[in-house]
Amino acid sequence: MKPETLAIHAANLVKINTGDVTPPISLSTTFFRGEDGGYPGGHMYSRVSNPNRSALENTVCKLEYGEDAAAFSSGNTCGLALFQALKPGSHIIAPDDMYWGIKKQLLTIFNDSLEFDFIDQTDLNLIRSAIKPHTKLIWIETPSNPLLKITDIEEIAKIAKAENITLVCDSTFASPVLQNPILLGADMVMHSSTKYLGGHSDVLGGILVTAKKDELWEKIRNIQQTGGAVPSPFDCFLLSRSIKTLAYRMKGHCENGKIIADYLNNHPNVEAVFYPGLVDHPQHEIAKKQMKDFGGMMSFLVKGGVEAAHEMVNKVKLFAQATSLGGVESLIEHRYSVEGPDSKTPKNLLRISVGLEHADDIIADLAQALG
Ligand SMILES: *Cc1c(COP(=O)(O)O)cnc(C)c1O
Predict the structure, then answer these.
(1) Which of 40, 94, 250, 353 is the most core-located residue (most Cβ within 10 A)?
(2) Closest CA to 100 of 348, 369, 344
(3) What average pLDDT does the chain have?
C-alpha cells in the first residue's frame, strides 16, 4: 500500500469488539489475565504496551518500512534511549549541524560515558577518517537543523555497513512521507513526532523505527518499557489521528515551501536561503535522489546582521515567533538565541516552518516584515 493509504488504515488493523471504526482511547493501565495466566488482549501493563501506543508504533513502523517501532514521550527521549543502550566508552560520529537538544545530551549527560565527534557529514571522507575501532554509532540528521544540510544516506549506510557500525537517521524534517532512510540502508530512523507527525503543535512525542530487531534494539525496547518514558494513550491517539492526514499535509507544506523559498531567494534584503529544493543548494542533487519532495523547513540570512534579523521577526503578524516546526501554522524563529552562546548558528539566521496557510498570505507577511 502507498503511504496515503497506510497512514489511514495501519492503525485500525486491530479490530475492537465494540465495533468502533476508529480506535477508542484506551486509558486502562492494567489488563485482564486469562485462565492460563496469559494476557489474551496482548497487553499486561500500560508502561510496557497499550493499544493506542501499539497502533501508533504499528503505523509509523509501516510508513518507514521497518521491522519494529518504539514510541517515546519526546523526540529527545529517542536519543536518550539510544545513547543509554550503547556500551560505555563507545564512540559516536554525530553531525556538526545537529538538533540542539540531542547534541546537548551528548555534551552534558553522556560526556563522561561516551566519546563523540561532531563532523560535517556532507563530506564522506570526513566520516571515513573519523571512524575509530570503538565507533558504534553514526547519527545523521537530514535535512539538518537549522542549516538544512543534506547528507547522503545511501553512501553513509555503505560506509557504516562495511565497518559494522549502526546508522541512525533523525528524519524529523522530512517525515516518513518524504524520505525513508531504512530503504536507503539505515539501521534505524528517528522522528520527533512533535513536528510533522503530530502536525498541529499540540502533542509531544518521539518514535524510533528499526530495520532489524537486533541486540541493540532489544536494549532500546527494554529502556522504553522499563524506563517508562512513554507517550500517554491520549498522546498516541492524537498522533494516530494526525498521521491520517500526514501525506496531504506534507503536499501542502512542500508546495508552500517551494514558493516561499523562491520568494526569499529573490528578495534584496535576504543574504542567503537554505532550502534543499533550490537548485543552488549545495546538496540539491542528493536531496532529489533521496527525498520525494523538499518539505516546508528553511532558514535564511537577513541582510544587516543580528539587529535586522530581530527587527524582522518582531514585525511578522501572520507568522508566530516561536520555536518548533511541522504544524499547520507558519512559525519563525531566531535560532541562535534559542540555542545559546555556544551555538555556531549565524546570528542573522531565521528559521521558518512554512505552514498550510495560503502562500499569498505568507508572502504578504514576509514582504511587510522584510521591507
Ligand atoms: C524537535 C526535534 C527533536 C527533538 O524532539 P522533541 O520532541 O522536541 O523532544 C529532534 N530532532 C529534530 C530534528 C527536531 O526538530
Answers:
(1) 353
(2) 344
(3) 96
What is the DSSP code (8-state) at residue 224?
I
Counting residues of the chain whose pLDDT is more than 90, the rounded percentage is 92
Ligand 1: distance of its center to the CA of 36 in Å? 43
Q: Which pLDDT belongs to residue 14?
A: 59
Q: Which atom of ligand 1 sits closest to the CA of residue 326?
A: 15
Q: How confident is the model at residue 16 (pLDDT cuts 50, 70, 90)?
A: low
C-beta 204 within 6 A of ligand 1:
yes
- Vertex 162, ends 158 and 167: CA angle to 5°? 60
Map grid coordinates 536494549 to a residue.
Answer: 219
Which residue among 60, 102, 142, 144 has the greatest number of ligand 1 atoms within 8 angstroms of its CB, and so is best to mutate?
102
Ligand 1 mean position, distance from CA 212 (Å): 23
Q: What is the pLDDT of residues 123-174, one digit of tens each?
A: 999 999 999 999 999 999 999 999 999 999 999 999 999 999 999 999 999 9
Sequence-distant (6+) residues with CB within 8 A of 114 are 83, 86, 88, 89, 90, 91, 92, 106
The CA distance from 94 to 107, in Å, is: 12
Structural domains in the chain, sorted by start: 3-243 (3.40.640.10), 247-370 (3.90.1150.10)
